[in-house]
């Protein structure tokens, strides 16, 4: 006796469900004052400014990542473009286990870092436009763009990219103009770049040790890395003039090293951060 169509359909549905990839419950957590977000399912940290790279070719975006790492952006030197591999985080040039989402169904398209962000963290569905600024819980992802290069190459002249305006990834010639969205492995809250005993996720000076977290002007930057005395987010000659005006006094904000007096030690800290941003 042949099975009924209903029974056959039920059996097929159960088989398909059994083949779906399984996912741990995902949640994004705000890090580094909202400039980064930790994905606790994939164990990676994203920049929350999704348009920081500007548009460029695949090679342009790889070069941009190099500049981020050379500058130790947010205190780290291991940023990379998000991967299109189901293995996640493959080095540039490796492309195993790539799913071409123009020819396969939605659940499998979600099984890579960019697809996971679209379908799981952002809760998208195929065909949905998720561009723009999106807030999930306590995390705001700013300026999501339609097209992103992944860090995964396809052959010698192509690379994989992902559409956040419709929700799938395909390969494309490397000279196309797309954005890059960077991640790093692990949770930045567990790192301590300056070894001062304060995790980077809570540290108000990422690259200068300041276990006391002293911040006399309350701007979120510890005095040890905050010679921006007029709080215009740049250390320059205006700040030098303000330091000079209180030299050899006990001005708390200009006393960068906390020894009770504004002197040449504080001037040295300002010199080291001159023409940079505080923090």
Features of the shown structure:
single chain, alpha+beta, 6 helices, elongated
Task: Compose a concise summary of this entry.
Helix content is 21%, strand content 18%. It has 279 residues and is α+β, with helices and mostly antiparallel strands. It is elongated.
- What number is the mean pLDDT? 85
Q: Count all strands and give the number.
A: 11
Number of helices: 6
Main sheet summary? 5 strands, antiparallel
Strand order of the largest sheet: 1-2-3-11-4
What fraction, in percent, of the residue positions are helical?
10-25%
Based on CA inertia axes, which overall geometry fits? elongated
Termini distance? 75 Å
Rounded Rg: 24 Å
Polypeptide structure, described:
By secondary structure, the chain is an alpha+beta fold. The chain is 21% helix and 18% strand. The chain has six helices and eleven strands. A hairpin with a 2-residue loop joins strand 5 and strand 6. The N terminus is likely disordered.
């Amino acid at each position: 006796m042949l099975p009924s169509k209903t029974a056959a359909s039920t059996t097929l549905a159960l088989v398909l469900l059994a083949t779906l990839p399984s996912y741990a419950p995902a949640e994004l957590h705000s890090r580094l004052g909202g400039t980064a977000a930790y994905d606790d399912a994939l164990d990676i940290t994203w920049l929350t400014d999704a348009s920081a790279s500007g548009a460029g070719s695949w090679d342009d975006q790889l070069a941009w990542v190099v500049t981020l790492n050379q500058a130790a952006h947010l205190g780290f030197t291991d940023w990379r473009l998000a991967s299109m591999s189901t293995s996640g985080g493959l080095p540039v040039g490796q492309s195993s286990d790539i799913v071409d989402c123009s020819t396969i169904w939605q659940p499998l398209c979600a099984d890579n870092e960019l697809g996971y962000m679209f379908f799981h963290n952002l809760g998208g569905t195929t065909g949905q436009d998720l561009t723009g600024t999106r807030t999930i819980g306590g995390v705001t992802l700013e300026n999501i763009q339609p097209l992103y290069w992944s860090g995964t190459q396809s052959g010698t002249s192509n690379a994989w990219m992902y559409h956040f305006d419709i929700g799938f990834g395909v390969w494309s010639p490397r000279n196309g103009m797309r954005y890059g969205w960077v991640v790093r492995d692990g949770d930045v809250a567990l790192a301590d770049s300056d070894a001062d005993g304060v995790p980077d996720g809570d540290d108000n000076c990422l690259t200068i040790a300041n276990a006391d977290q002293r911040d006399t002007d309350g701007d979120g930057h510890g005095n040890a890395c905050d010679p921006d005395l007029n709080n215009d987010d740049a250390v320059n000659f205006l700040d030098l003039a303000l330091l000079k005006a209180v030299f050899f006094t006990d001005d708390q904000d200009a006393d960068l090293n906390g020894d009770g007096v504004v002197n040449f030690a504080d001037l040295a800290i300002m010199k080291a951060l001159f023409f940079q941003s505080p923090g």
